[in-house]
Amino acid sequence: MSAVRPVIGYAGMTHLGLNSAVAAAEKGFRVACFDPNPKLIGQLAAGVLPVVEPALPELLKKNAESIEFTAAAAGLSRCDLVYVAPDVATDDTGRSDLTAIEGILAAVTPALKRDAATVILSQVPPGFTRAHAKQGQALYYQVETLIFGRAVERALHPERFIVGCADPAEPLPRAFLAFLESFGCQILPMRYESAELAKIAINCCLVASLSTANTLAELCEGIGAVWSEIVPALRLDQRIGPFSYLNAGLGIAGGNLERDLATVLRLSEAIGSDAAVVKTWIANSAHRKDWALRTLHDTVLSRGRDPLIAVLGLAYKENTASTKNSPSFALIRHLGPFRLRVFDPVVPAVEAPHPNALTSTSALDACAGADALVVMTPWPAFRTLKPSDIAERLAGKIVIDPYAVLDGKACRDAGLIYRTLGSGAEEIH
User: What CATH class is the domain 200-289?
Assistant: First the structure.
């Protein structure tokens, strides 16, 4: 291969494709970005982003001369390697809608030069890549590492590359290999179906850890133990490790984990294997998702008044505008009869699924006159709130903070009644 670096193409300018393309440009590659939506392409060319991600606007501006946006698939004709990377939406059952990726694959394939390699980066069910492989085509599947709120970081610093191949014993195309090697991490070639299932396996392990943490955190709440005191001991166990997914949470959210569990259930049913543990994880998630509602009911809603509830956070997690399966939305849907004041740094209050949610200009403004505060998204900005300032504005004393965003001791010192996951409850008189 010549010393000239390969040109990298990305097809599908939603969350995955856009962040991956900007990361490739940051690594020093020239990048061509295609999407069939001309309006979206026009916005991106003008620097207007459809997603919220830390560092993305800055890196797009920094690398603008290396990135070309186009609404014509022919714009990818000079690329040596093309990633097909539209986001794959899921329905309420966790089933993937593959329409977008099917359409982009059909549009892109005829436009590529003969020796270009095509890589499916979008998450697809096992069997998808092989079903779309054609004789003589260099088609691969690569496991994406996207995490909303950390998309740029993950794209720039992957732990490893998992690559699905028609024949993993065959060497990767030179342009593909050169691109992957520029990231300096291990490359794991395997057959298509193994790579497709590897992504699901990773997420199943994460769900297993989360389910374990949530189950034991709930025990802590009932017996007087504190889960946050136990977690450091687990991280020091070599069989578990320092990076384990051990924080208690409000079930699984965002869509991707739910999709993978649904896929495992469908595949298991099709081949007659036992997936009862997956059904248990799903049930555990649903149970823990209602923790905030149960706690709010016990402390405020059941006490015979017309309370005003302040809700901080609408996004399903910090540093993203996504509300897919948001725990906050799940809570708010049950609060229709009650008055709400809501605030999120990114998601507009009008998106809250509540007929009369009042918009607030800041987190502290949302607290004004409220009988209870519920922190439903662990935004970094919320961690800087002083409990004494919150106490001054609240009419009541209840603070429900599942993710321990606030300083619990400082809340209690300010006279607030503080509830968090994995810790015993205080008495309310």
Answer: mainly alpha
